[in-house]
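pasting for the record
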Amino acid sequence: MSQADQALLSTPLADRHRTLGARMVDFAGWSMPVQYSGILDEHRAVRAHAGLFDLSHMGELFVEGTEAVRALGYALVSDPGALEVGRAHYSMICFPDGGILDDLIVYRLGEERFMVVANASNAAVVSDALADRFADFKVVLDDRSLATALVAIQGPESLSILAPLTDVSLANLRYYAIAEGAVAGVPGLVARTGYTGEDGFEIFVDVAAAGAVWDALLEAGYPEGLVPVGLGARDTLRLEAGMPLYGNELGPDTTPYEAGLGRVVRLAKEGGFVGREALAKAESEGPRKKLVGLAIRGRGIARHGYDVFIGGRGTGAVTSGTLSPTLGEPIAMAYVEPSDSQPGTIVEVGIRGQRVLAEVVALPFYRRAT
């Protein structure tokens, strides 16, 4: 093992990934499986049956105290106090100038207890930012990112595979809800959330118990078509579902409104929040750029950073792109000037020295049958 490998963090399931033949890569300072049998097979398994994901690199930050609602309301753009106990919502933490520091999921575990899940690349940054913003509030921030494992099962067969292994009533667990319970005899939290565009569940347990949960799900799901899934297929799945990725669609130079996520911002909530003034101005003035979907009509795959043109002028850049395994055609997301963002607009993408035609389309590219 090289010195670089030794410097990487490992999830509690790393040995299992290698036994399963995973190709491991450096992702946000973690040694993570990028694929097992292959991105295409893994992607299709999730769409048709189920996939099992190790997401233990994500950050889990617990917030508790008599002023937890006020503290989180001040720190984030959403209104966590509006959540019922046992529910969750998508949120963001922004810089004072309105740029996005990270996108988050906020779960309300009790009247005065929350869990905030941050991206792996930003977990420490978000933890530090919350600690700073909580300074004047009676609240305790417990960063349990390295003590918590996260295993996700996603796909149309996920409920039938997980149900016999848990005491949580999955049929009564609504989308973006969370409940305490046991999986394979291991106590933890079960949430009906995910990042694939499919129905599924995310299971939070102590790191020491992650192996037992992973093994039980893999054994129970194998006859139903479940396979382990790496970061490669996770990316193609989320892209088809039109879900943004921090560092691609989201970042310090982008506001929630430009990303098409202005619905997350609660400008009128009591007490104000960090970035409110800048975001109120951004809403009033309108976006400088807009996130759109692109269906590539010529040959080639649009990759992150490729320029987008309309007529003889540049209008923006691709943020993510792939050959969609579900649709069988190249797709991408890109930021373009607002005047060029209407579905049906024909643009060109610079792909390997060629201008390739593409059409602006509404997101998402894929939506599961309900």
